[in-house]
Amino acid sequence: MARRWAATLADTKGVTLPPEELEPLLLEVANDAVGQAASRHDGALLRFTALYAASPMGIALADPDGGIVEANLALGQLLGCSPDRLRGRHITDLGSTEHDVSRLKAGLEQVRSGRERYQERMLLDHTEDGQLWTDVTLARLPGDRPGSVYPVLMVSDANELHLLQERLLHQNVHDPLTGLPNASSFTTKLEAALGAGARDDIALIYLDVDGFKVINDGLGAGVGDQVLRGVANKLSAVFTGHHDGFVARLSGDGFAVLLRGELAATEVVGLVERALEDLNEPIYLGGHGIGVSASAGIVVRAAVEGGAAELLRAAEIALHRAKEAGKAQWMLFDPELDARDRGRYQLGAVIAGALENGEFSLVYQPTVKLARPDELAAVNAGLRWNHPEKGELGADEFYPLAQTTGMTVPLGRWLLAESLAATARWRARLGDAAPDVCVRLPARLAIDPDLVLLVKEQLDKHQLPARALRLCTDRDSVLDPRGEVLDSLAVLADLGAHLVLTISGSADLELIPMHRLPVRHVILSGPVVDALDADAPADAAIRHLTQLITRAHELHLKVGAEGVRTHEQAARLRQLGVVAARGPFVSDSATGDEVDELINRHPRR
């Protein structure tokens, strides 16, 4: 080669050296070039070998068929054996399961077919520890001949990372206290059960522990947590294994159960009753035998009948109805009742707007003196809702809803303000002949810490003496532990307001001396009054009423009655010592204009 190039260069214009002198020079250049190339090749080979040996990643070099030719120390340590034991094995033999073996085979095929890299997380076999999660990469190295390919396997340890991810995933979809699936997991399960093509029946059960706050506050949060774990275990024991039962903790003391398959309502109810019975059995913690009761709302329907949101809403309504019915029981969702309740809840939701828009007005019920029926003792003020669609609604139709929506206090404040404004007008016209106004305090307003301030502000605003106002309350408000009712009543009495207690029996009456209530009037109500409406009242009812009135007189109280229907009933009450009464025997109710006329006809002397 050097001689040929020497002859070529010797014939080139401008070259004066003869070929025999050029030849050794070219040989020297060629030898130098070959030496440099060999040196670079040897250096690259040494660097690759050092990297292969020192790499913390497990590496196996394979022949074109996938047989392992060499394996580094890191791969041996990762799989719990020496590299020598890996030589001669096929790459696919490292897979722990059939699924992993098939994925390794697929990866080899893809690399042979021209794909540069194949990556998967899979299980490989560890000699001592069994299965090991790893991140596997298959790549291609060029062979000696053009077009030939040698697979290389690279493996890194992903076991701790995979287990961490699994734990995080478990925590993301499970409740950390009870270990049950959480609300998010339950929603996903429900949506899947109701997905396209679903043909099963679905049963959704909402359960809520009754009075859990008593356990939590009385015995401590630690005991409460153990009780919730016990509830979770009992629910799982009852429902798991029945119709693909799926039990979840939604939040706090609320749980949910999903059943699917061929379901009958009677079977589902039977499971729920069994669960409620099991929950009643005491759980012994720290020397305390703690029994819990639960309420349950049940929905059973075909999966194709409505979506997840509708099903969840139905179960929640059924649970709410079970609690309203007295707790510790179940209630099956009833579409007809739902339609009725939906109307009630819609009504409750718009109370605030109705108050702001002036849809409420005062309605009055006169109380007359039984000795002089033409003279008013007081006028009882109440609320009426003039609903634009439903017409006139009485207090019993919207006050329970106001309690649920938090509108009791605003309504009570408005009632008090408007009643005193009306009283101021009457007194401006009639002076002391104007009747007192009696306002029944809603329970939530009676316990309000600002009650005294509210009453004082309204009395001052209308320049009224406190004696013009009668405030009526009842047993439940007096005994309500949430507020300082007794203190508020004492202050109001000191201001001069007349306090009235509604009673229906001896226990109510005895609250007055027991708590030293500054009450001046009691109002007989309910069965004790209704008993006199009969043509021939029972002797026991008469004795009870007589004893009640006698005891009230001993306490120096004036006795009135409400709900009196007939003049005969009013006459009997007068004979027994009742001084005033109200009810249909006088007038059912009167509006603002009508009460003015009524007051003019029956002025107080």
TrEMBL record:
Pfam families: EAL, GGDEF, PAS_4
Domain of life: Bacteria
Coiled coil: none
Residue ranges annotated for the GGDEF domain, each copy included: 200-335
PROSITE patterns named among the record's database cross-references: EAL, GGDEF
SMART domains named among the record's database cross-references: EAL, GGDEF, PAS
Residues in EAL domain copies: 344-603
SUPFAM superfamilies: EAL domain-like, Nucleotide cyclase, PYP-like sensor domain (PAS domain)
Identification of the protein by name: GGDEF domain-containing protein
Organism expressing this protein natively: Amycolatopsis vastitatis
